[in-house]
Amino acid sequence: MRYAAGMSRKTWNRIASGVVALGVAAGGLATFLVLRQGLSEAELRAGVGKATVEVDADGVPTIAAEDWLAVTKAQGFVVASERLWQMDLIRRKAGGRMAELFGTVALAHDLETQRDDRLGAARRGVEALPQEERAACEAYAEGVNSFITAAKSRWGFEYQLLRTEPEPWQCADSLLVLIEMLDMLTSTASRDASAGRWSKHLSPAWKELLFPARHPWNEPLFGTDPLRSPAMPPPAEWIPPKPLAANDAARVVRDPPVIGSNNWAWRGRTGAFLATDPHLGQVVPGIWYALRLRVAAEDWAVGASIPGLPGVIIGMNPHVSWAFTNTGEDVDDLLEETLTEDGNSYLEKRDGETQIWKPIERKTFAIKVKGEAAPRQLEATFTHRGPLVDSRSRQWLALKPGVLRLPAFDIMRSKDLAELDRALDGMRSPAQNCVASDRAGTIVYRTTRTGVGPRLDALTPVGALAGEWG
């Protein structure tokens, strides 16, 4: 190898090493700038318009503006700056669009999900939202899209790896996030199908033993109405628990632990305390996003939100605090339909001795698959009770009109427990155990309403006319 005149080999190696090092450093810096996600506090402030953002030492943002719609728009921007990929993945999973990114490995999931027409349910849900809830939903989407447009190099490295871009966020996408939460907390159709296969071969006694419709432990701890219980006054004095009997202690050791969420509240001389531990699926990052939202000195909320949903879900304001855990209500049933021989109609109802038949609705969905030029076509069938597979309709509350609601802002702006109680009436699904407290230390409990009245305890598939909700 020849070297420049007057340049030693040692000098040349030093220069070459320096050039390589500079190249590696420049490449690393470029990769960091392109792939990093999350904006600095100054960048957040520049992106939220008239709102303000302050981030504390723990990374929790405080978002403030003159009104709640401006706060909500800024919330969409701030959350998307850190969780856009997570939000995108949730809406795709809920809507049956995973195969677009991951190919045939996700096709089975997409086929099953699109048979429910969950995207259609979300779009119809937007039209049915009360005006204030829809305004908040649209403002949140506007904030998300502001981030997508303004920070194209900061979406997250996942988009670089998959060579794709995020689509604009829509209000219907927030309802898809809600549907995904409902799927996690209320989806039991597969369990019912499995139990149905077993129960066909069991005697009535064995069926009742293995698949009991009711259990003696499933009773409210206080009050007579399982959907609403009176306020619980704090005890005058602390009462120690009774010691366990010998057989109780043995049972506690022998029985496996029960997995479930929990809420608890306590009032002492120094104030009232409320805590919650909602057990959801393990995901990275965790599903909860902590933040503070503020309009005025006495008009604010702080707590945990869910990426993709506007407002604070679990938290407190100057007047009340609230927490949720899942009730495990059975709102997902398989109904055995009576079909005509040609499979084109189903028995809708009976009017006395008259049978009323209705045509089965058919819809075609296009499922895009990564690496395939043309989308795959799926024909799905429906009765008015829900999506139909073989001869069974799926009656799932998440797919019913008017169920998808976003009452977070009514909840987090409640000025007392009575207002909170009314706001919780808007939380149609999933049904939740709610423990709440006010500044005076009053502690209350209730479950949220679902608005359905199952005729049967449908833990296995049941006849459609007998099992349809009233």
Brief digest:
This protein is of the alpha+beta class.
Provide structural commentary.
- The chain is α+β, with helices and mostly antiparallel strands.
- The protein contains 15 helices and 18 strands.
- The chain has helices at 9-35, 41-47, 68-95, 99-102, 107-115, 118-128, 131-150, 157-162, 171-186, 189-199, 204-210, 246-254, 408-412, 417-424, 464-467; strands at 52-55, 61-64, 262-268, 271-277, 289-296, 299-305, 314-316, 320-326, 332-336, 345-351, 354-359, 361-367, 376-383, 386-389, 392-396, 432-438, 443-447, 462-463.
- The strands form four sheets. Strands 1-2-5-6-7-8-16-17 form an eight-stranded mixed sheet.
- Helix 3 (68-95) crosses helix 7, helix 3 crosses helix 9 (171-186) and helix 6 packs across helix 9 (171-186).
- It is globular.
- The N and C termini lie far apart (89 Å).
- Mean pLDDT is 84; it is low at 29-35, 225-241 and 249-257.
Strand order of the largest sheet: 1-2-5-6-7-8-16-17
**Could you name the ranges where pLDDT drops below 50 across 5 or more consecutive residues?**
29-35, 225-241, 249-257
Supply Rg: 27 Å
Write down the overall geometry.
globular
Number of helices: 15
Strand content: 15-25%
Give a count of the beta strands, DSSP E runs of length 2 or more: 18
Sheet with the most strands, sense and barrel status = 8 strands, mixed
Characterize the quaternary organization of these chains: single chain
Into which percent range does the helicity of residues fall?
A: 25-40%
Distance between the termini: 89 Å
Assign the structural class, choosing from mainly alpha, mainly beta, alpha/beta, alpha+beta, or little secondary structure.
Answer: alpha+beta
> Overall pLDDT, averaged?
84
